[in-house]
Write a structure and sequence with these properties.
This protein has 499 residues and is α+β, with helices and mostly antiparallel strands. It is built from 18 helices and 23 strands. The protein folds into three domains: 285 residues, Bira Bifunctional Protein, Domain 2 (BirA Bifunctional Protein, domain 2, 2-Layer Sandwich), CATH 3.30.930; 78 residues, Herpes Virus-1; 106 residues, Rossmann fold. The strands form seven sheets. A seven-stranded mixed β-sheet has the order 3-9-10-16-13-12-11. Strands 20-19-21-22-23 form a five-stranded mixed β-sheet, sandwiched between helices. It has a three-stranded antiparallel β-sheet with strand order 5-4-6. A hairpin with a 5-residue loop joins strand 22 and strand 23.
C-alpha cells in the first residue's frame, strides 16, 4: 500500500511540474544549454502568481500591523556580518555519500524521509522516536552516530539500493565570491544565505528614523543563496530562492507570548488564501538552532509529503548581541514606557520573534493546492477536466475577454471592454479557436472569469460571465463587470479575514 501511495505521489508531482512548464509558470533555467540543477525561471504566468503572493504577504504584514514596517537590504554585506551570525562557523549540513552510486545526500533528510514512511504506515511512535534520536545526535554533533543510525534503520540509497555509506561530514552552504577591481586587492564576501541579517544590522536605523516602539517588526522580501548539494522536488529546494521574513522585536521575558501569537497568526494566513486546514500542521523542532529557544515549522502536505513552508522562531537576543560585540556598536533600545508601568527606565537588547516563509515554497504550495482533476459530463461523454483552482486574488490573470466570433463587430466591442477593465485587472484578450477551447485554456492557467461577447452584447450591452470553478454562466450588464470581478479578486477579501 505504501508503495502504491508513493507511486501516486510521484505521478501527481510529475503532472504538476509538466503543467507548470507547459502553461508558462516555471521553466528550467538556461534550458537551451541543458539547464542547471536546482535553478528555475518563472514564466509569464508564474511571475504574476509569485508577485501576487508576495504583494499579499507584504500588505498583510505592513498594512494590517501598524507596528510593522518594511526594508530592502542589500544582498552583499560586510563579511563580519556572517561571522557574527554564526554562518561562517556553523552554517553546515550533514552530508553522506553512497559508495556504489557516487551520489551525495543530506543525512538528516534521509532519516526524515524514513520517519515519514513510518508515519504513513501508521507507526507514529516509531516515527517520533527516530526523529528524536536524530535530533539528539545532531545536537551532540555525533556524526558517527548519525551514520550508525542510517545503517541501523536500513536506509538505502535511492539509486543503488545499497547501504554502503561513507562517513557523515559537515558541508558549509554559503556561496563566496571576490570583491575588488585588482586581483591582489580583492577580499572574500558572501552571497547572503538569509535575509534576516540585513534587518538586524538596520535595527537601530529603522527604530530611530521611524520612532518605533518595542514591540515592533521589520519585514523584508529578498533573494538568498545556498549551495544546496541535494536539491530536488522541483522548486521546493533551490540554490537561489526568495524569502519573505519579518523580525519582530520584543521585551525580554515576553517572547513566548509573541511567539505563540505569530505562530497562530501565520497559520491562519495560509488558510485565508485557500489552503485547507487539514493539509497544514505544526512541527516543533527537535533540534534548535544555536540562536533559538523555541522553533516551529508550518508544514503543508505536498504530493511528496508534509514539508516546511514557513518557520516561526524565537531567536532570543542572539543576533543583536553578536552584532554588538563584533561591531562594537551598541544595539540597545531605551524603553521609556517601562517608567510608566512603575519600572525603572531601561536599556536592553530586544528579543526577536521571526516569521520566515519561502516565496518559492508558497508558490509551489499554491500551485499544488490549485491543481485539480475532475470528471465532467458533456453530452453523453464523460471526460477529465484539468484546471487550476487558485484563490481569485492570487490568480495570475483575473479575467479573459472572448469575442464569440472574429466578425460582425464583436472583436471591436470586446476590445472596448478589455481597454476599460485593463486599468484595474490583469486581463487576457483572445479570439482564436472555438469558445470551448478558449474556456479550457483559461481553466488551465486558473483564470477565475471568462467574459463572452456575443451578438446580444451589441444589442443590450450585456455579456456572459463564466465561473471557472462551477462552469456556471450568468448574464450581466457590462457596467457591472468591474464591481463583480473586483469583489472576488481584491486582496480586501483576504485582509478582512485576517484583520
Amino acid at each position: 500500500m505504501a508503495t502504491q501511495d508513493k507511486t501516486l505521489e510521484n505521478t501527481q508531482l510529475k503532472d504538476i511540474v509538466s503543467h507548470a512548464k507547459e502553461y508558462g509558470f516555471v521553466f528550467p533555467s538556461s534550458e537551451i544549454y541543458d539547464g542547471m540543477q536546482a535553478v528555475y525561471d518563472y514564466g509569464q504566468m508564474g511571475v504574476e502568481l509569485k508577485n501576487n503572493i508576495k504583494q499579499l504577504w507584504w500588505k498583510c504584514m505592513t498594512q494590517l500591523n501598524q507596528n510593522v514596517v518594511g526594508l530592502d537590504a542589500a544582498i552583499f554585506m560586510h563579511p563580519l556580518t556572517w561571522k557574527a551570525s554564526g554562518h561562517i562557523d556553523s552554517f553546515n549540513d550533514p552530508m553522506i555519500d553512497n559508495k556504489d552510486s557516487k551520489k551525495r545526500y543530506r543525512a538528516d533528510v534521509l532519516i526524515e524521509e524514513k520517519a515519514a514512511r513510518l508515519e504513513n504506515e501508521g507507526n507514529k511512535e516509531a516515527c517520533d522516536a527516530l526523529l528524536a534520536e536524530m535530533g539528539r545526535l545532531l545536537e551532540a554533533e555525533d556524526l558517527d552516530g548519525v551514520r550508525e543510525l542510517i545503517i541501523r534503520e536500513d536506509i538505502k540509497c535511492p539509486v543503488s539500493g545499497t547501504t554502503n555509506w561513507t562517513e557523515v561530514r559537515q558541508f558549509n552552504l554559503m556561496f563566496s565570491t571576490q570583491v575588488g577591481s585588482v586581483a591582489e586587492d580583492t577580499s572574500t564576501i558572501y552571497l547572503r544565505p538569509e535575509t534576516a541579517q540585513g534587518i538586524f544590522v538596520n535595527f537601530l536605523n529603522v527604530q530611530k528614523t521611524g520612532r518605533m516602539k518595542v514591540p515592533f517588526g521589520i519585514a523584508q522580501i529578498g533573494k538568498a543563496f545556498r549551495n544546496e548539494i541535494v536539491a530536488r522536488q522541483f522548486i521546493f529546494r533551490m540554490r537561489e530562492f526568495e524569502q519573505m521574513e519579518m523580525q519582530f522585536f520584543v521585551r525580554p521575558g515576553t517572547e513566548m507570548e509573541w511567539y505563540n501569537k505569530w505562530k497562530e497568526t501565520r497559520k491562519v494566513w495560509h488558510e485565508a488564501i485557500g489552503i485547507p486546514a487539514a493539509k497544514l500542521r505544526y512541527h516543533d523542532h527537535e533540534k534548535l538552532a544555536h540562536y533559538a529557544n523555541a522553533a516551529v515549522d508550518i508544514e503543508y502536505q505536498f504530493p511528496f509529503g508534509f514539508k516546511e513552508i514557513e518557520g516561526i522562531h524565537s531567536r532570543t537576543d542572539f543576533d543583536l548581541t553578536q552584532h554588538q560585540e563584533l561591531s562594537k556598536k551598541k544595539q540597545q533600545y531605551f524603553d521609556n514606557d517601562l517608567n510608566e508601568e512603575g519600572k525603572p527606565y531601561g536599556n536592553y537588547i530586544p528579543y526577536v520573534i521571526e516569521t520566515s516563509a519561502g516565496a518559492d515554497r508558497l508558490f509551489l504550495m499554491t500551485l499544488c493546492n490549485a491543481y485539480q482533476e475532475e470528471e465532467i459530463t458533456e453530452g453523453d461523454a464523460v471526460k477529465t477536466r484539468t484546471f487550476l483552482k487558485f484563490h481569485p486574488a492570487l490568480a495570475p490573470v483575473k479575467a479573459a475577454i472572448l469575442p464569440l466570433t472574429k466578425k460582425d463587430g464583436l472583436p471591436e466591442k470586446a476590445t472596448e471592454i478589455f481597454n476599460d477593465l485593463k486599468f484595474d485587472f490583469n486581463m487576457i484578450y483572445e479570439e482564436r479557436d472555438s469558445i470551448g477551447k478558449r474556456y479550457t485554456r483559461q481553466d488551465l492557467i486558473g483564470t477565475p472569469f471568462c467574459i463572452a461577447v456575443d451578438h446580444q452584447t451589441l444589442e443590450d450591452n450585456t455579456v456572459t460571465v463564466r465561473d471557472r470553478d462551477s462552469r456556471e454562466q450568468v448574464r450581466m450588464p457590462i457596467s457591472e463587470l468591474r464591481t463583480y470581478i473586483d469583489k472576488a479578486v481584491n486582496f480586501r477579501s483576504i485582509l478582512e479575514k485576517l484583520a
